[in-house]
Specification:
mainly beta
């Protein structure tokens, strides 16, 4: 069994034409999941988005 937890925040720059997005992901992978030995992983993602 796999459980995922996600926490994120958005910050808009220059009106609404640019955005910075930060996300933290925590994955808990059970020992019975096919192809995995089980365990946990953490990810920090940072995205930049612009619109014209």
């Amino acid at each position: 069994m796999e459980q995922d937890w996600l926490v994120g925040i958005n910050h808009y720059l220059n009106g609404r034409h640019a955005k910075i997005q930060a996300n933290f992901v925590r994955k808990n992978i059970g020992s019975r999941a096919p192809g995995f030995l089980g365990g946990s992983r953490s990810l920090f993602l940072l995205n930049w988005q612009t619109a014209f």
